[in-house]
Amino acid sequence: MGTHAGTYLLGVDGGGTRCRFALADSSGRVIARHEAGAANIATDFEAAAAGISAGLRALWAGAGMRADGFGSAVCYLGLAGANLDGVGERLKARLPFRICGVGDDRLTTMVGALGGADGGLASVGTGSFLCRQADGVLRSLGGWGFVAGDQASGAWLGQQALRCAVLAHDGLAPEGPLARALFGRLGGIQGLASFSLGAKPHEFAALAPEILAAADAGDAAAVGLLRDGADYICRGLAVLGHRPGERLCLLGGLGEPYRRWLPEAMATGLVAPGGSALDGALTLAGRLAKVPVVNGGRP
After folding, report:
1. Residue 293 pLDDT exceeds 80
2. Measured distance CA(91)–CA(296) in Å, rounded
3. How far apart are CA 119 and CA 134, in angstroms?
4. Among 250, 242, 64, which residue's Cα sits nearest to residue 140?
5. Three-class SS of residue 142?
6. Residue 261: helix, strand or coil by DSSP?
7. Which positions ≥6 away from 172 have C-beta within 8 Å?
8. pLDDT > 90: what percent of the chain?
9. pTM score, two decimals?
10. Closest by alpha carbon to 153, among 260, 249, 78, 252?
11. Mean pLDDT, range 47-63, rounded to an integer
């Protein structure tokens, strides 16, 4: 594979809670990083596009690079919501790069975590998706957004927890530690209802620590939600052809917490990811530029 000496690589990993940026030189060595807020281009395209553009320029300037060279860098963006038709191309038209790729975060996550190796992954953060790679073929499911999907995710858990709390308030379920914690945090049933009407996915996901703590305390509703989430992960991976004991990575802010809720046969295949979705984005930028990159420039 040929290389282009002097080419700078920009990688972006954008999700429903935060967006990470990295700049690498032509050897694949990371020379600058930056982090900003949510960047789901399907949920709020204008805000996400503006935030991504600002983040890229802040990354470039923070590395002390000349402004007139910005558009010559090769960029790859792996973004939540980019799997919807036309959204990625719309974003590319807003960016100044001559060579630029935009895809959803499933590919960057898989490339970062497993490289070319076979195996599966469950990415469970604000949103969720599942992937499996076998014989060079990548299959995935999920990632269709908070309203239509994202089962097991932080946003899904938060929404379901509010529904459990409402049932407890209405006398249709016991009021346990989870309902009490949510009422205390949100200001009772009135505050909970008001919050639910305008909350964004990342705000629902911010309730996940209460859910995890309540499950540790034995709250039946919280335990039930985490078991339901784990069941979704297992069923989804099975649809993709994953077999118990096969290599599996758990990623995202809730990936590790789900470990204890997975069946033992599946847990035996768990491995640490080789790299992050941001590493995957840099690797894909390197492929566009014909520059070999491994794990974001790390040995």
Report:
1. no
2. 24
3. 7
4. 242
5. strand
6. helix
7. none
8. 52
9. 0.77
10. 252
11. 89
